Amino acid sequence: MTTESDAVEVGIIGGSGLYDLEALTDVREVRVVTPYGDPSDALVVGSLGGIRVAFLPRHGRRHQIVPTNVPARANVYALKSLGVRQLISVSAVGSLREELRPGDLVTPDQVVDRTRNRRETTFFDEDIVVHVPFGEPFCGRLRELLGAAARRATDAVVHASGTYCCMEGPQFSTRAESELYRSWGLDVIGMTALPEAKLAREAELCYAGLALVTDYDCWRAETDDVSASGVAEVMRRNSAAAKASLVALLESLDPEPKCACQNALATSVITPLDAVPQASRERNRLLVGRHFAAQGPPPAA
Ligand SMILES: CSC[C@H]1O[C@H](OP(=O)(O)O)[C@H](O)[C@@H]1O
Ligand SMILES: Nc1ncnc2[nH]cnc12
Fold first, then answer.
1. Ligand 1 atom nearest to 58, measured from its CA
2. What do you get for the CA distance between the two ends of the chain, in Å?
3. pTM value?
4. Digit-coded pLDDT (tens) for 75-95
5. Which atom of ligand 2 is nearest to the CA of 215?
6. So what's the ipTM on this one?
7. C-alpha R_g of the chain
8. What are the tens digits of pLDDT across the range 236-270?
9. 15-49: buried (b, 16+ CB within 10 Å) or exposed (e) per residue?
10. Is there a binding annotation on residue 92?
């Protein structure tokens, strides 16, 4: 049972090359059980800059989970159940543009879905139908704070916006695909922003991404094509920049965000309460309970 005093405010999901956050103090590991299965790993809960933070490595701490199988629903649900209201997602990405160089940081403002396999993209797949707005897939307020924190805390070039192409993987793109994405005007490519961003919106979390450019994918004649070992090597050199950005962000974060993200379900649940079986109401209490409460009690049968 989470109490007021140990409620966690901020979640951080670490991607390739970011498997822990040494800056956290007063740390404990929490294993959370969710209706959507087990999260990627135990959550590491600690303090940073006076804020309670939960850290979760997306692929597991030894990087054993392939992008398609990342249990994104369990991850987001577990963070929400600890009290998280703001979620930062760190990821390694390939660059689709000359001016986005390896070592640069990007806070994406858009995403294009090129996933195609077995990813569970909604919490609401039974009894309750929910259509959340997703025109702005990232929280603009949190994205700007994150970019500003990265500029303060690192020497890296920080790009304030960009479109993230989320491909399925695990194989990297063909050159023809990479050129296609470039012709579409997409900026960076990775395998994990979706469905994470969609689920964060359904969970009414502010969500922003810190993308570390690790390579030029496979379109640039002057550089080697992307490889997993190359990505890992660039991340070894640059994970300190990601960590410094996170620390600076936490120092400047409002623990009581007032964005629209925090109320995304208010206009999104289309199924009336009296059509939802009791068991489903219970299962969805964490995510929609307060919206159902606002509708008043269901009519007596
Ligand atoms: C190790 S290269 C490909 C791998 O790196 C990215 O991971 P993440 O987004 O979790 O940082 C990419 O999405 C792939 O999963
Ligand atoms: N080029 C690339 N394609 C997909 N995911 C990546 N992660 C890092 N670099 C990548």
1. 10
2. 33
3. 0.96
4. 999 999 999 999 999 999 999
5. 9
6. 0.99
7. 19
8. 999 999 999 999 999 989 888 999 999 999 999 99
9. bbbbbebebbeeeeebebebebeebbbbbbbbebe
10. yes
Cα 258 to ligand 2 centre (Å): 33
Active-site residue, 187 included: no
Write down the pLDDT at residue 254. Answer: 87
Residue 285 CA to residue 279 CA, distance in Å, equals 10
41 catalytically annotated: no
Closest ligand 2 atom to residue 216 Cα is: 1
Write down the catalytic residue from 6, 215, 224, 274. 215
Is 38 marked as a binding-site residue? no
**Mean pLDDT for the chain overall:** 94
pLDDT band at 205 (very low <50, low <70, confident <90, very high): very high
Residue 116 backbone dihedrals phi, psi, to 5 degrees: -145, -5
Ligand 2: centre distance to CA 250 (Å): 27
CA–CA dist 24, 209 (Å, integer): 20
Q: How much is the pLDDT for 222?
A: 97
Domains in the chain with CATH codes? 4-255 (3.40.50.1580)
The DSSP code for 173 is P
